[in-house]
Design goal:
It contains 16 helices and no strands. By secondary structure, the chain is mostly helical.
């Protein structure tokens, strides 16, 4: 069931429609920020061949940058979330949009083929990257939505599906016209400038004493129920949610990052493979929106185990994928999209339900840090498996038990805790 909207003293709860009427422009700005998160997801598939040609690197060496990014993000994301809890999302995200683009451009300019320089460049990039991670955007949106929070988070996270349309195409165009070095700057700064402009105009953080009757968001002191960080991370449900999110995305991101060369190994050209990512984008978008809609109607705990484990079936499909089979490749990309979309939306929503908003930024920042670890280690493992065996089959075989465990963890989360008198626990599913 949906929660009632947040209230000021003496004022009735806002309906989901009223929340959208007040918060839609901030949502557009937040989505533009989430679009930027696709940069690190798709750059390997787009920049893999130019880097291999120039420096003679293997796929594991190119993917190693994501391992560096994931390890530094594991520390940086919770810190960014804590800053958003303390100072507001705008103060963190607004400078982060431009800084991320500038630092990505630096990577293309300073790289000289040295793996040390390559790794250090990505470590520095984490400074900007942490400031625009989904923790910051979802913190702002969760403060503005309660009755329609599940769908709101789903719409926000749809920016990552839009990334699938924007980032690979922009990368392919920039590389072909300007070369891979300048392309790094273009891919970072174009979405960065757009996100900065939208957020500069549209976002304003809640402040103590702000009124619902005004133009802003709810008062900050009215929207902070929940556990403190230390208490939250000791809750069994939170531990299970974090573990399941990490395991699910470990293989999912590995498949997604290597999707273009993976499809190339099955007979699809690079333009065809990039075009087929539209299938993944649509599936991820539908999963986010459907997951949000179902969450607002009390079905999050029932749907999450199936959605988190969908890529396990995709692993089986990929093992059976014959040469240039469009039907099975479509099915596999659809299943990967379901898991990818659901994990981003439901991990954010379920964190608000099992943790509350008081330490949301720090706890969900930890979750995103763990997903960043998955985003770095998974593709590295996938690249290493390919370099050693000449095939991705080992990655798919390992994925099946990983997703069975993710399913079990999500199925055993248990009922939601109560943070406010007016909240009602979800019926057992």
């Amino acid at each position: 069931m949906a929660d009632g909207g947040s209230t000021d003293a003496g004022n009735p709860p806002l309906t989901a429609g009223q929340e959208w009427a007040r918060g839609w422009l901030a949502m557009v700005a937040g989505v533009s920020g989430i679009v930027m998160t696709g940069i690190t997801t798709y750059y390997v598939g787009m920049f893999l061949e130019p880097l291999q040609r120039e420096f003679g690197w293997g796929r594991a060496e190119v993917s190693s940058s994501l391992a560096v990014l994931s390890l530094t993000s594991f520390v940086a994301f919770p810190l960014a979330g804590r800053a958003a809890d303390k100072y507001g999302a705008r103060a963190v995200a607004l400078p982060g949009t431009l800084l991320t683009g500038l630092l990505l451009g630096m990577i293309g300019l300073v790289n000289n083929g040295s793996m040390i320089v390559w790794w250090l460049s990505w470590a520095v990039f984490t400074i900007g990257w942490a400031m625009i991670n989904p923790t910051v955007w979802s913190k702002a949106i969760s403060a503005r939505f309660k009755a329609g929070r599940g769908l709101a988070i789903g719409v926000l996270m749809s920016g990552s599906a839009i990334s699938t349309l924007v980032i690979p195409s922009l990368s392919l165009w920039a590389i072909s016209h300007f070369g891979w070095r300048i392309a790094f700057a273009i891919v970072g700064l174009v979405p960065g400038v757009v996100a900065f402009a939208l957020n500069f105009v549209a976002t304003r953080d809640p402040r103590p004493g702000a009124s619902r009757s005004g133009a802003g968001a709810p008062a900050l002191d009215q929207i902070q129920p929940g556990y403190e960080f230390g208490e939250a991370i000791r809750r069994p449900a939170v531990v299970k949610l974090l573990a399941a999110s990490l395991l699910s995305m470990l293989i999912t991101i590995a498949i997604l990052v290597h999707a273009v060369p993976m499809l190339g190994d099955h007979g699809f050209s690079k333009p065809e493979a990039v075009g087929m990512l539209l299938i993944y984008a649509i599936a991820a978008l539908v999963a986010k929106l459907a997951g949000g809609w179902l969450s607002d109607r009390g079905h999050a705990r029932a749907v999450a185990p199936l959605a988190y484990a969908a890529t396990g079936l995709a692993c089986v499909v990929m093992l059976l994928l014959p040469y240039r089979s469009v039907a099975l490749a479509t099915l596999a990309l659809t299943l990967v999209g379901i898991t990818s979309g659901a994990v981003l939306q439901m991990s954010a929503y379920l964190t608000t339900r099992y943790v509350g908003l008081r330490a949301y930024g720090q706890v969900y920042g930890l979750c995103m840090g763990m997903l960043a670890v998955a985003g770095g280690v998974g593709p590295l493992i996938g690249g290493w498996i390919y370099d050693v065996t000449g095939s991705y089959a080992g990655l798919f075989i390992a994925g099946v038990p990983v997703y069975l465990l993710s399913f079990a963890l999500m199925a055993s989360l248990g009922p939601y805790p109560r943070f406010e008198p007016e909240e009602r626990a979800e019926p057992a599913s």
